[in-house]
Amino acid sequence: MRRERALFLLLLLLHLHHHICASKEEQEHGCPPSSCGKITNISYPFRLEGDPEKCGNKRYEVGCENNVTVLYLHSAKYHVQAINYKNYTVRVVDPALQLHNCSSLPLRSLSRSNFSDTYSYYSNGSYQAGLDSGINGESLIFEHIVFLSCNHSVRENGKYVKTEEYVKWDSKGYAYAVVGDLKAEDIEVGCDIKLVAPTSLRSFNNHSYTSMHSSLAYGFQISWLQLACQTHNFCSDGFCYFNFASQKLDCK
Ligand SMILES: *[C@@H]1O[C@H](CO)[C@@H](O)[C@H](O)[C@H]1NC(C)=O
Ligand SMILES: *[C@@H]1O[C@H](CO)[C@@H](O)[C@H](O)[C@H]1NC(C)=O
Ligand SMILES: *[C@@H]1O[C@H](CO)[C@@H](O)[C@H](O)[C@H]1NC(C)=O
Ligand SMILES: *[C@@H]1O[C@H](CO)[C@@H](O)[C@H](O)[C@H]1NC(C)=O
Ligand SMILES: *[C@@H]1O[C@H](CO)[C@@H](O)[C@H](O)[C@H]1NC(C)=O
Ligand SMILES: *[C@@H]1O[C@H](CO)[C@@H](O)[C@H](O)[C@H]1NC(C)=O
Ligand SMILES: *[C@@H]1O[C@H](CO)[C@@H](O)[C@H](O)[C@H]1NC(C)=O
Ligand SMILES: *[C@@H]1O[C@H](CO)[C@@H](O)[C@H](O)[C@H]1NC(C)=O
């Protein structure tokens, strides 16, 4: 009798254990991946609009429009190009950028200053601009291309690449694009910043606008590092970051 009871208890415990594990698992992995166009693996933390309530995280909901996966970032719409679950990044592109049309430009400016993790470790947004939140601003996972309109021709500064053949802001003016962040001494008198656009394809020719443009059309990565760190309560004290060498989350 006692033995039977003990066995029953054991079975009950095993069952309960299984149940607890299953419900935690379900939250993250229990839903089969959703698919839209070329993005065939939409899973936690992402959810596709219309998925069952329990799937993914509402803050990472993506839509499917004309067979294209769309993501909203600061209420602007972007097309999803790839989701990389191993390094917690999603690559998106502005919907107005057309790959072989060098006159096409993003609809909205976007730069590191639109992401709060650039300034502090604690960001309240869903996405971050780096994989090393705020520890140093050097670990951005995209870089900037800055478009300028000038009232004179700039020949002395090698960073200024002419865009006039494709992009012109003012009929009388001179138009340029510059890779990277502009230091104060780089901003020529009589030039205005018209647009700042991110790209994560760094292997372009920084003296050729067509090359800069195709890197813009490749898109840029943003990360969900903070959610990943919080989900596993990864570092009880210290900073959680993505270690590129080991390709895993780490603490420091
Ligand atoms: C949607 O996109 C996928 C992948 O690019 C393609 O295989 C499929 O034919 C497309 N479906 C429609 C209805 O366009
Ligand atoms: C899809 O993503 C899940 C969750 O990260 C991963 O376990 C799985 O291997 C991925 N499948 C493919 C085909 O990439
Ligand atoms: C994340 O992984 C993807 C796919 O391997 C890669 O293309 C991308 O550059 C990686 N992102 C970072 C920031 O290393
Ligand atoms: C290229 O982009 C420009 C600017 O968006 C647009 O006016 C033009 O119609 C596009 N050209 C083609 C061939 O789609
Ligand atoms: C990023 O910030 C700039 C400057 O505050 C703003 O003009 C732009 O609309 C923002 N971009 C997005 C996508 O919210
Ligand atoms: C983040 O916090 C700032 C300042 O506290 C606020 O202006 C902003 O709207 C918040 N963003 C989100 C996505 O909650
Ligand atoms: C252009 O790229 C080369 C090689 O990557 C680099 O050494 C150089 O400083 C860059 N020039 C400008 C103006 O950014
Ligand atoms: C361009 O604008 C700057 C500042 O507005 C002015 O000082 C300069 O004279 C202008 N240059 C030309 C060539 O119009």
Automatic annotation (TrEMBL):
GO cellular component: membrane
Sequence ranges assigned to domain Wall-associated receptor kinase galacturonan-binding in this UniProt record: 31-94
Record's signal peptide: 1-22
Localization terms from the record: Membrane
Keyword Transferase among record annotations: yes
Topology versus the membrane: Single-pass membrane protein
Entry coiled-coil feature ranges: none
InterPro entries from the UniProt entry: WAK_GUB
Keywords: Kinase, Receptor, Signal, Transferase
MF annotations from Gene Ontology: kinase activity; polysaccharide binding
Protein name, entry field: Wall-associated receptor kinase
Organism, as annotated: Vigna unguiculata
